[in-house]
Amino acid sequence: MADERLEPTSVDDFGAERVLYTDDNWIVINKPPDVRMDGEYPVTVESLLRHWNSKLRDTNFKWVHQLDYATSGVLCVGLNKAAAASACELFRARACKKEYTALVYGHIDVSALPEINASEIINSGEGNAKRKR
């Protein structure tokens, strides 16, 4: 039976040590898991940013990328339109490198996993599918 995860109920549950970098253009944080980006919830990335830095209370944050609710990791938030536009261009041009690490609970029988040739997937375009518009 899977452990039931509880949604955080207070911004006080997270300390400002999660702020990795701040300047006039950016704030970069280590987003905790099970926290939504924004909205009417007890704890959101938006409410955490305002809690950690009182100078940002009236800031209209510019989301240049997002992390899913359950995903933790580095999140870069623009503090103005120019910063957000430059970051969006980097993501659009795929100039940013993203890495994901999955942490699992339990044991994996590696011998039962199928063998995958990553270079075949990459070369087939399957790993980088583009949506038709």
Alpha-beta content class:
alpha+beta
Q: Which strands sit side by side, in order, in the main sheet?
A: 1-2-4-3
Helix content: 10-25%
Tell me the series of helices and strands, N- to C-terminal.
EEHEEHH
The total count of strands amounts to 4
List low-confidence stretches. none
Number of continuous helical runs: 3
Short description:
The chain is built from 3 helices and 4 strands. It is α+β, with helices and mostly antiparallel strands.
Written overview of the protein:
With 133 residues, the protein is of the alpha+beta class. It is 20% helix and 14% strand. The protein contains three helices and four strands, in the order E-E-H-E-E-H-H. The chain has helices at 45-52, 81-92, 118-124, and strands at residues 19-22, 26-31, 62-63, 73-78. Strands 1-2-4-3 form a four-stranded antiparallel β-sheet. It is flat. The termini are far apart. The mean pLDDT is 85.
Key phrases:
133 residues, alpha+beta, 4-stranded antiparallel beta sheet, 3 helices, 14% strand, flat
Task: Give the helices and strands, then pairings.
Blueprint: E1 19-22, E2 26-31, H1 45-52, E3 62-63, E4 73-78, H2 81-92, H3 118-124
Antiparallel strand pairs: 1-2, 2-4, 3-4
